[in-house]
Amino acid sequence: MTDIGGKNKVAPKMNGAQMILQALTELGVEVIFGYPGGAVLPIYDEIYRQDKIRHILVRHEQAAVHAAEGYARSTGKPGVVLVTSGPGATNAVTGLTDAMLDSIPVICLTGQVPRHLIGNDAFQEADTVGITRPCTKHNYLVKETALLPQVVYEAFYVATTGRPGPVVIDIPKDVQVEQAVYKVPQKAEHRTYRPRTIANEIEIEQIVELLMSAKRPIIYSGGGVINAGPEASKALTELAHMTNIPVTSTLMGLGAFADSDKQWLGMLGMHGTWEANHAMHDCDVMLAVGARFDDRITSRVDKFSPNSTKIQIDIDLSSINKNVQVDLGVVGDAGIVLKQIIAAWKANKASLNAAAMDQWWQQIDIWRARDCLAYSQNSDVVMPQHSIKRLFEMTRGLDPIIATEVGQHQMWAAQYFGFDDPNRWLTSGGLGTMGYGLPAAIGAQIAFPDKLVIDIAGEASIQMNIQELGTAIQHRLPVKVFILNNEYMGMVRQWQELTFEGRYSSSYSDALPDFVKLVEAYGGTGIRISHIDELDAGIQRMIDTPGLVVVDCQVAKLENCFPMVPAGAAHNEMMLAGDIRKTADDEISQAVV
Amino acid sequence: MFMQRGTLTNKVYKETDPMKEKGDIRTHTISVIVDNEAGVLARVIGLFSGRGYNIESLTVAQVESDEHRSRITVVTTGTLMVIEQIKAQLDRLVAVDRVADLTIEGPYVARDLALVKVSGIGEMRVEAMRVADVFRARAVDSSLSSFIFELTGAADKIDAFIEQMKGLGLVEVARTGAVALSRGSDGL
Ligand SMILES: Cc1ncc(C[n+]2csc(CCOP(=O)(O)OP(=O)(O)O)c2C)c(N)n1
Ligand SMILES: [Mg+2]
Fold it and tell me: Of the residues A270, A461, A463, which should be mutated to test ligand 1's pocket, given the most ligand atoms within 8 Å of the CB?
């Protein structure tokens, strides 16, 4: 066992802070993202006195959680956060909620006022377990020092198994300094929490039968496949290849199935492709894996894929039948169940009706021919779609990790940047948190110091955590921030245009800073692209410049993000660039929300 | 290449939630065995309020003292789909050990306990005592001008008793909400 501080060689009695560091070290934690304050000073002192775990000082606690999320998403390992009581904890709440909605394993240690002051409205006291109860998978207030190792082990177990999520451990300051005997916890399990990971044979048989009966099957995969690890992505690919079934995925699931694969239909949902949404609408058997039928996917549930038999595989029983009634719900780990299906498929020498599949693919090719992502770059102004496309093409061999903020740029990144592997795409899907991208990119860059990590940003979003440029400089992180600067909260403006007759209420990005000067002030490099002729050179310079770079790419200001399924419309009623509405159904045209 | 602007109507789309509208509203009695740790009741209640589920009644007490287990009995209403969601969401809570839907899983016994205070003198007082007798309610407190009756039974029986007491000087009521167990030899 590691002996922190060199004391207590025989009976490992240590103080609470040492116990925390000890437990974290045993659990393989290499990095903590955090911000100090009175209620965590004992832990910070122990961090100072050891050298196994690195501490990354951020500039805002929200960013600490997003950085931990970026670390977790890019590595598959849990991210660890340390913040102080009161404002430290409340600042972390947005990050925790983000991790909750996207099922990201994060362990957040919060300081708390000493036990005897809890409930007294003490200085920097907040009811952290109360506040974070609905935005964590579980949380703990540790009132007994000797329990710390057990709680830390359990928190890791809970955060990383089943459907992953954030866990808060609230630790009163006096618990951090009190001495207790360190007992290495036995295997961290939980008395009442036992996620089910394996499907039973009957379920697998039924899945195989349903798939075999299909004439127009589709695989709809989601973030659960990414969360289940690279093995799950491999299994997804294997199943798709052996069955020739087309694959689409949610925003969260991008990268689980290769963008370059000919069976890939692109993303589905509100800003999904014509072919993906039409195939979802018209399919006869749908295999949903690790996807939860979110409203950005289904749009109007009563018109969602009306004639299909739906199979849903999910680690979380509560995700099944929540929004859409499925015909066969199977609780299990995406990777494990996919492998079970593959084994059964092989054992049964199963196959699909070849003629029907040919027809299905022909239909899909017709939809593909609509070329729904077409745009024209024919003026001096950089089209936002084109900037992403060039960014993708010019970084292709470099296997970059892409983070995003939230808005049109995020959707364009999802549409025009192709991902062939999982864990390369870090975006706030569930909560849609502006300010997510830069800290998430920082977290990924910590895990992969030599990789190209780019935050594709909007000029509004980037300002929500722009202070993290300081974090990147301090820790020498060569993060690249590529701002699609349209001088608007573009996504808000687009909705105002489509649903509020173009009254752009407060969506203009006024009083913008000079982003080039701003990053220079922090000690990084700024690049401005204001003309189409500068685009490639600007991107190349960004790639070639060591250290932190911010690119202010000035793009067409009023471009809209299409295709678009207006909320309340069906998948086959989507809007494409250049048309107002494909169907003239009045009720639906009012339904843009 | 730009589309025409501002042509869609700005009427706000009325939220319809077909999944929640579909199906009859039903009442279910759900048993939840939980680890008796700090905050567990807040988690359960927070889940109901946060997700907009109904609580008709909720009772909780520790039932296995050595194991620190409590049993929560919650009576809730919703469509079948919502009831299924409630159970799955409860089951997802880390501190929840087991969830059973007594309404679905077979016959069960459900009982409320009520304390009912009535005040009156003379004929009213005699009549209150007589009705209590019919309902097998016990007087657990009495003064010259009042009684407190204790009554256990199914919720509708208690409702009926309270209804009758309204004409006989009803002052106030305290009642527990249902506690329930499945019939037969098996336990949860
Ligand atoms: C924290 C937060 N506040 C508000 C919103 C609502 N919102 C969604 S997109 C958006 C505009 C984003 O603008 P920008 O970053 O410039 O991206 P663009 O859409 O222009 O690409 C806003 C305000 C949000 N998603 N997150
Ligand atoms: Mg913008």
Answer: A461
Average pLDDT rounded to a whole number, residues A49-72: 98
B145 within domain boundaries = yes
CATH code, domain carrying B78:
3.30.70.260
Residue in B8, B91, B95 closest to A317 by CB: B91
Contact A557, A486 (CB under 8 A): yes
Q: Is A408 in the pocket of ligand 1 (CB under 6 A)?
A: yes
Give yes or no for A75 touching B (CB within 8 A): no
SS3 string of A168-202? Answer: EEEEEHHHHHCEEECCCCCCCCCCCCCCCCCCCHH
C-alpha B83: how far from its chain's center? 14
Is A566's pLDDT higher than 90?
no
Ligand nearest to the CA of A561: 1
Q: Is residue B38 part of a domain?
A: yes
Ligand 1 pocket test, pick from A466, A491, A509 with the greatest ligand atom count within 8 Å of Cβ, gives: A491
A·B CB contacts under 8 A: 94
> Per the domain annotation, does B7 fall within a domain?
no
Q: Are residues B100 and B135 in the same domain?
A: no
pLDDT of residue B3: 30
Residue located nearest, by CA, to atom 8 of ligand 1: A407
Q: Could you tell me the distance, in angstroms and rounded to a whole number, from the CA of residue A487 to the centre of ligand 1? A: 12
List, as one string, the DSSP characters of A245-294.
--EEE-GGGTTSS-TTSTTEEEE-STT--HHHHHHHHH-SEEEEES----
| pLDDT score, position A12 | 74
- Residue-wise pLDDT for B72-92, tens only, equals 999 999 999 999 999 999 999
Tokens 């050179």 belong to which residue?
A: A537
Three-class SS of residue B51? coil
**Host domain of residue B136:** 109-181
Output Rg (C-alpha) for chain A, integer angstroms.
25
Structure tokens at B171: 């002052």
Chain A residues whose CB is inside 8 A of the B96 CB are: 192
Q: What is the pLDDT of residue B104?
A: 95
Neighbours of A297 (CB within 10 A): 28
Q: How many angstroms is it from A456 CA to the middle of ligand 2?
A: 11
Nearest CA in chain A to B48: A134
Neighbours of B105 (CB within 10 A): 12
How many domains is chain B built from? 2
Q: Report the alpha-carbon distance of residue A559 to residue A339 in Å, rounded.
A: 43
- B22 with B102, same domain: the answer is yes
Question: Is the predicted pLDDT of residue B20 greater than 70, yes or no?
Answer: no
- Domain at B153, CATH number: 3.30.70.1150
Question: With contact defined as beta carbons under 8 Å apart, do A23 and A153 qualify?
Answer: yes
Cβ–Cβ < 8 Å for A453, A400:
yes
The pTM of the full predicted model, rounded to 2 decimals, is: 0.94
User: In sequence order, what DSSP letters do the residues of A517-551 get, joined into one string?
Assistant: HHHHHHTSEEEEE-SGGGHHHHHHHHHHS-S-EEE
Helix (H, G, I), strand (E, B) or coil at A140: strand
Average pLDDT, chain A: 95
Residues B79 and B147 in one domain: no
Number of H helices, E strands in chain A: 22, 20
B108-136 mean pLDDT: 96
- Convert the pLDDT of each residue in B139-179 to its tens digit: 999 999 999 999 999 999 999 999 999 999 999 999 999 99
